[in-house]
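Marked as duplicate of an earlier ticket. Keeping the data here for the record.
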Amino acid sequence: MDRPSVPCTETENVCPRSSEKRQIKAQQAVRLGVDSSVAPPGRPPATLSNPTLLALASDEELSELLSALRPLLRCCDSTGRWVVPAVADALQPLQNTCQERLSRVSQPCSVQLATAAAGFFAGVMREGGNGAVVQDGLLAAVAEYVLSGCSALEGSALASLLALLLEARFQPAHPITFGNAVIKRVLQLSHAPPGMRLRHLADSVEALAQLSCCDAASAPPVISVAVGVALAVEAQHCELDSEHLLQLARVMQGVAVIAVTTPVCSSIVLAASAAWHLQVMRVSAAAQQQAGLGTAISHMWCTSRLLAAAGQANAHDPHHSLLTGCLGLMGKAASADREARGVPGPTSAQRRVLSALCLLGVPAPLITVNCEFKELFQISIAVRMSLQTGEGHRQVAILVRDPLKHLLRGSSVGAPLGAQLAQERMLQAAGWTVCPLVSQSCLQLPLDVLAAELAALMLGERERSSLRFVA
């Protein structure tokens, strides 16, 4: 495959809006009747809650309205409510209107409105936290809009729409078909001048990886274009830029997740891992003469370790893992400059699991909370055990997941996100027994029931009575 065109190099940092611009946009939204306390004379308050008035607005007017409302998306930390109360009343009518526009067939929704809606509702979820609900109907309409009109979307619009689906953890109804359409468009944009912006590519690859929209056939082109873009960016930038390096690390992290969660050929993963490792070494050497790149270099080395672990988890030939080790990926990355990471204390769900393990008779010295796995991620609770049958020691990784952060919505509701699925595959490849638990179940199940379910996950129904823990 030919190397993709060099991405656009103009500054991609989005400058923060000045207070004056925010004030102007807020005043525009107030004039439209968002804030009922200062609604213009003669106009009903909270006009945005009236679906009839929203239906009369054109796509252009509605997109301008959503852009004007974005500065008002602020949630009070103490109460958890929106700072502008009328925003809460307007969210449902706006969702219904945008869903109807995106689903329109006779006159397709404009790209401007689709992009504005994606940015607005992604902001709703970020600012409103877990209490901000974006309905599945709207997300399904966004996914169908991307699938049907992907060939006409530019990089910014495509990235915005995918970012909303990722923020909502919403997997499309037909993820592989959806992913093939997106990948085809990403390849077109990457090969056509001036190329796809690096941030947009990172958003696209991350969404494809986390929402599990790749298979064995579509993964190699994604990996190839990602490595090609990374090399092209390095060749074009004489002076290293921290933002570009961070976006490159995001792209390759997505590649690592795809490599672990799809049956892609291990030689492709090995080649990508080696190319990225050599690039990180060159960038690290050049960064010694330039200040302010410590965080970016640290992220790049972390990505190098992740790719190496992905190659080992994916390898079907032992020589591949041997070659990966000879390249020095793990050793070099471990000794590189890293950010200090604090180990958090156990959560409420983890404490319930610890109580269940105590009920099963697990000695405390055999339990480790927030155990590091190859400096890549943390295992919620690690247990070392053996069976009375004499099969030897067994390492068990109990992964406690938050359903509002780590599990998919949509067609594969309850399934883990791509990153969490990749963690399972890496642990299994290293010989661990993986026991995924949902934090909500840990907190709601009676302790004896939780202990019984945990024992079944750790050993299976037939071996449950042969549980024995050893030092």
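See parent ticket for discussion. Residues 75 and 81 are 5 Å apart (CA to CA).
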